[in-house]
């Protein structure tokens, strides 16, 4: 599944970067993207996602563009020094520590891609956990509302921890499109 790459929205959600920053880096050709022939959507590789996350994790005093971070990560990967990158001779960045959280989110997301399905006959086509009627958005909503993973697993004992966390990441990266159902302004009053 990793060969699919990631859409700009997925990269923005997993790296914590604004979508406009990701789109601008692609448009200005600082980060390479390829077009998926089947869906005609732009896809970025895992190194691009890690580059945005690295830029976001660095302190403000150390400025690094996504394009420069991408080149550094590519170079380190080619030299088999993926755990440490150097900028000049003075600055060394431990990417193992700086990118650990994002790498975990990537693994959860890749797991969720295998477990989350969209079938028009189930829950109106909303993304659900395979073999259930539990939507990814409902699991994300519970986590955002403050429910612990343990309490969700008590309610759904047939799910595992990675599926619940992966569904939350999936729902964040793939929000439902269009207007919300019903009349949300009535609830506000």
Structural notes for this entry:
It is a single chain. The chain is mainly alpha-helical and 189 residues long. It has 2 domains: 2-98, Multidrug-efflux Transporter Regulator, Chain: A, Domain 2 (Orthogonal Bundle); 102-173, Winged helix-like DNA-binding domain superfamily/Winged helix DNA-binding domain (Arc Repressor Mutant, subunit A, Orthogonal Bundle), CATH 1.10.10. The chain is built from 10 helices and 6 strands, in the order H-H-E-E-H-H-E-E-H-H-E-E-H-H-H-H. The protein has a two-stranded antiparallel ribbon. The chain has a two-stranded antiparallel sheet with strand order 3-4. The chain has a two-stranded antiparallel sheet with strand order 5-6. Helix 1 (8-15) packs across helix 2 (19-27), helix 1 crosses helix 9 (161-173) and helix 6 packs across helix 9.
Averaged pLDDT: 85
H-E order: HHEEHHEEHHEEHHHH
Helix content: 40-55%
Radius of gyration over all CA atoms, rounded: 19 Å
Q: Provide the domain count.
A: 2
Q: CA-to-CA gap between the ends?
A: 45 Å
Query: What strand order characterises the main sheet?
Result: 1-2
Strands, count: 6
At CATH level 3, the topology of the largest domain is Multidrug-efflux Transporter Regulator, Chain: A, Domain 2
- Number of H- or I-type helical stretches: 10
CATH architecture of the largest domain: Orthogonal Bundle
Categorize the overall geometry.
globular
CATH class of the largest domain: Mainly Alpha
Please mark out the parts with pLDDT under 50 across 5 or more consecutive residues, or reply none.
none
Major sheet details: 2 strands, antiparallel
| Class from helix and strand fractions | mainly alpha
β-strand amount: 5-15%
């Amino acid at each position: 599944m990793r060969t699919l790459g990631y859409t700009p929205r997925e990269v923005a959600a997993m790296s914590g970067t604004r979508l406009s920053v990701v789109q601008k880096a692609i448009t200005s050709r600082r980060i390479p993207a390829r077009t998926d022939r089947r869906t005609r959507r732009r896809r970025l590789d895992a190194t691009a996602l890690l580059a945005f996350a690295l830029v976001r994790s660095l302190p403000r005093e150390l400025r690094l563009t996504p394009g420069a971070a991408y080149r550094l990560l590519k170079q380190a990967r080619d030299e088999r020094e993926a755990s440490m990158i150097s900028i000049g001779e003075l600055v060394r960045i431990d990417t193992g520590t700086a990118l650990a959280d994002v790498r975990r989110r990537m693994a959860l997301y890749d797991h969720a891609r295998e477990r989350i399905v969209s079938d028009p006959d189930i829950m109106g086509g909303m993304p659900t956990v395979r073999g259930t009627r539990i939507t990814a958005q409902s699991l994300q909503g519970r986590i955002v509302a403050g429910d612990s993973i343990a309490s969700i697993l008590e309610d759904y004992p047939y799910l595992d921890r990675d599926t619940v966390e992966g569904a939350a990441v999936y729902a964040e990266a793939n929000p439902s499109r269009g207007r919300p159902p019903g009349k949300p302004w009535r609830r506000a009053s």
